[in-house]
């Protein structure tokens, strides 16, 4: 709070009453975050706190449209090139002033010690906690990018495609391009009073000449023997080995529906690297739901046994590494291969990139998704068709996201279901509603000629539709 006052982002209200117009007092509290390298103690303003009338100020605000890119799209582009480059906008929301007449909606009360009187304060900048704040902050940065798009073309493109709230997460082909982008981003944001900090890269040369205070701790310790990690949009990234890692520490808690859901929610996997693992967890949750247990009831022995194994093996995920970059500087041919599969438990899809270079052939896992089967029973062929639809949507999404970043020569979609493949390769109007609608969507997303048959034993999507425990996933070659 002292920093708010010293920065001019907050000021004392000498005569809080009477006031012209409406006012609103924000509840607030501190949150201590041990793993933060910059701000250990954060002030949280609760604009969703409801008053006597049952409404909060967030209930009355227009939140604004979504301006930022999807998290999955940003992460896919982050993997597209050889040199990773990330940075964080320091106190992004607090660098943006709001209209003075609106500040009365951002009043708080505070005292710095028990002996001080309680005073009224006014917050003068965009405040985290209001539903409209992300829109306002991102709009300002995008407007800045558009205003100087001709002067800073590299920074303009990066802010449009690689900005997620206050994080810039991107990748480029060479160290020279990384330095040019870095300098443009710094100059562009400084022109409006923003500061980029916590810079990190898979190549330290990309950050040469940068003030060490602006670099992340992992870059300062880059030459150490330990491959340190940092959080990038919720994922654990090891900059030295340029790979994604995982660390899920099981909590010693009583097994109930509440604790199982809480534990599963801690597994953050937007790219689907752990799709077989999360599918196993989803199946457990679905079984819990069908039993209609209360939140703190103990589940049956078979579920407790499965959960105990799942929880005990979570620690082995720390040995799993997935390379970040899937592209290469000298690509002769690039193919997209998607696989789908279904079982009575559910269905899934996975996409690989096959790259031919002068040094040989490389295969990289791009992304994966899985879904549990609906409670209303479906035949296996229909579930296989649902899997094909999921794959077609994923292929279309990847194609759209990587356009301009990756030249894909061919696309292939593989299924081990001859029935589903026959449906896909025929005219949609031949079939009843369920099949007709899904076949039409599949054909819109992926050309019919791209669909081929793969043996079940060779289908990597089989794991996404049946599930794996952590130890089996780490041992899997898929």
UniProtKB/TrEMBL annotation:
Pfam family, one: RVT_1
InterPro entries named among the record's database cross-references: DNA/RNA_pol_sf, Retrotrans_Pao, Rev_trsase/Diguanyl_cyclase, RT_dom
Domain Reverse transcriptase: 77-197
Family annotation (SUPFAM superfamilies): DNA/RNA polymerases
Biological process per Gene Ontology, one example term: DNA biosynthetic process
Protein name listed in UniProt: Uncharacterized protein LOC112465321
Lineage: Eukaryota, Metazoa, Ecdysozoa, Arthropoda, Hexapoda
Name of the gene: LOC112465321
């Amino acid at each position: 709070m002292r920093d708010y006052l010293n920065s001019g982002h907050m000021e004392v209200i000498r005569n809080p009453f009477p006031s012209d117009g409406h006012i609103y007092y924000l509840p607030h509290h501190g949150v201590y975050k041990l793993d933060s390298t910059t701000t250990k103690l954060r002030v949280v303003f609760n604009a969703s706190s409801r008053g006597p009338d049952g409404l909060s100020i967030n209930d009355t605000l227009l939140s604004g449209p979504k301006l930022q890119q999807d998290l999955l799209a940003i992460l896919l582009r982050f993997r597209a090139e050889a040199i990773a480059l990330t940075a964080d906008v320091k106190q992004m929301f607090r660098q943006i002033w709001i209209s003075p007449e609106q500040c009365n909606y951002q009043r708080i009360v505070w005292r710095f010690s028990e002996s001080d009187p309680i005073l009224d304060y006014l917050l003068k900048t965009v405040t985290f906690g209001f539903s409209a704040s992300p829109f306002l902050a991102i709009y300002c940065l995008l407007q800045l990018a558009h205003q100087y798009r001709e002067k800073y073309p590299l920074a303009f493109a990066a802010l449009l495609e690689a900005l997620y709230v206050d994080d810039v997460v991107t990748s480029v082909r060479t160290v020279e391009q990384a330095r040019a982008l870095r300098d443009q981003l710094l100059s562009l944001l400084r022109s409006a009073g923003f500061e980029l900090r916590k810079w990190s890269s898979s190549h330290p040369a990309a950050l040469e000449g940068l003030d060490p205070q602006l670099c992340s701790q992992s870059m300062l310790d880059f030459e150490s023997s330990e491959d340190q990690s940092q959080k990038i949009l919720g994922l654990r990234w090891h900059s030295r080995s340029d790979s994604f890692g995982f660390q899920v520490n099981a909590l010693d808690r009583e097994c109930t529906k509440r604790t199982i859901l809480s534990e599963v929610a801690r597994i953050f996997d937007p790219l689907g690297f752990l799709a077989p693992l999360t599918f196993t967890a989803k199946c457990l949750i679905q079984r819990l739901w069908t039993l209609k247990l209360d939140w703190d009831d103990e589940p049956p022995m078979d579920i407790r046994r499965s959960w105990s194994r799942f929880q005990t093996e979570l620690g082995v995920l720390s040995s799993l590494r997935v390379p970040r970059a899937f592209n290469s500087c000298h690509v002769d041919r690039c193919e997209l291969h998607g696989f789908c599969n279904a079982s009575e438990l559910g269905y899934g899809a996975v996409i690989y990139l096959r790259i031919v270079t002068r040094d040989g052939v490389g295969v990289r896992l791009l992304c994966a998704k899985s879904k549990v089967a609906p409670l209303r029973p479906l035949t296996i062929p229909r579930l296989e068709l649902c899997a094909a639809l999921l794959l077609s949507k994923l292929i279309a999404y990847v194609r759209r996201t990587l356009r301009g970043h990756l030249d894909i020569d061919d696309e292939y979609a593989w299924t081990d279901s001859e029935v589903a493949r026959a449906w896909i390769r025929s005219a949609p109007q031949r079939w009843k509603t369920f099949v007709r609608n899904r076949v039409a969507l599949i054909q819109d997303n992926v050309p019919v000629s791209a669909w081929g048959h793969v043996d079940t034993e060779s289908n990597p999507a089989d794991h996404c539709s049946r599930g794996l425990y952590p130890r089996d996933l780490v041992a899997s070659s898929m």
